Automatic annotation (TrEMBL):
GO biological process: fatty acid biosynthetic process
Domain of life: Bacteria
Record's keyword annotation contains Transmembrane helix: no
Protein name: DUF479 domain-containing protein
Organism classification: Bacteria, Pseudomonadati, Bacteroidota, Flavobacteriia, Flavobacteriales
Keyword list, A-Z: Hydrolase, Lipid biosynthesis, Lipid metabolism
Annotated GO MF terms: [acyl-carrier-protein] phosphodiesterase activity
Pfam families xrefs: ACP_PD
């Protein structure tokens, strides 16, 4: 609790100091989607009138509730919350595609939170991981199978459809994990949580603030569950600068479940082959 308060003070939060109090009942998807819950921790959100943002009729539906402390702690310091600052959150695939190299995994994990080749304290191998992450993103963004998945979402979500497909594919990776990796997904997740904690100083400040919540609510393992997906999408929708409707995307995931999974199964083996070859090339260039 004291750590959370110190972080809140550092980030100039005006949200009440206490974290969202625990919920005492199991939650339905409908309850998860309500504004009375923190979309990241699924706990009841304490509301303070002085923290409720002013709204106009045009944006009242999008900003009816203030951000919870959980959300504020993983939101960048900049006041501008544009689409370019929205992390994609598809961490599981990027960690898988680091092929059990810890330095590559750190770079792959933090790449969206650093500019250029990396931070001054980053090793050459971490910088390789950052470069690999960006190569993976480019390959994914320009793949025809991924384009088919995005097309199902484009009319409703526009440019956010690419972000959603990234998250959806992490859902299918987690759901079919045993087909791709010998290690249990929960063990894989907690091994990486421990590694990130042990190498905390090598993480950018934004990621340092996010990590405790990622670990406490076990984001990597919970990608396989629709409730976990709903939590992630609610949080991302809150941080989008426009009304993204991403909090509604779990319904699209249900509707096109078999099609999305089939497309993932075509795409992911190609991504594995590409990533292995690209990683070897980047290592040779270190």
């Amino acid at each position: 609790m004291q750590v959370a308060r110190l972080l809140a003070a550092e980030l100039h939060h005006t949200h009440p100091r206490e974290l969202c109090p625990p919920s005492t009942a199991s939650l339905s998807l409908r309850e998860i989607q309500t504004n009375s819950l923190c979309p990241l921790c699924l706990r009841v959100r304490p509301i303070s009138k002085r923290n409720t943002p002013r709204t106009s009729p045009a944006n009242s539906a999008q900003q009816a509730q203030p951000l919870s402390l959980c959300e504020r702690l993983i939101t960048p310091k900049t006041a501008k919350q544009s689409f370019s600052y929205l992390p994609t959150m598809n961490f599981l695939a990027h960690l898988f595609l680091s092929f059990d190299d810890e330095d590559v995994a750190i770079g792959n994990f933090v790449a969206d939170s650093v500019k250029g080749e990396g931070l001054p304290q980053h090793s050459a191998r971490i910088k390789t991981g950052i470069a690999l992450h960006r190569e993976i993103d480019y390959f994914t963004d320009h793949h025809p199978v991924v384009a088919q998945s995005k097309a199902k979402l484009w009319d409703k979500y526009r440019h956010y459809s690419a972000v959603l497909v990234d998250i959806f594919y992490d859902h299918y990776l987690s759901r079919t994990w045993s087909e791709w990796h010998e290690e249990d997904v929960a063990h894989f997740a907690h091994r990486h949580y421990e590694m990130f904690n042990n190498r905390h100083s090598e993480l950018p400040e934004q990621v340092q603030h996010m990590l405790p919540y990622m670990i406490e609510y076990d984001w990597l393992t919970n990608y396989q569950y629709l409730e976990g997906m709903q939590r992630v999408l609610n949080g991302m929708s809150r941080r989008a600068s426009f009304q993204s409707k991403m909090e509604e995307a779990v319904q699209d995931l249900r509707t096109f479940d078999s099609e999305f999974e089939a497309e993932f199964r075509v795409f992911f083996p190609e991504l594995i082959l590409f990533s292995k070859a690209k990683l070897e090339q980047l290592k040779e260039e270190e």
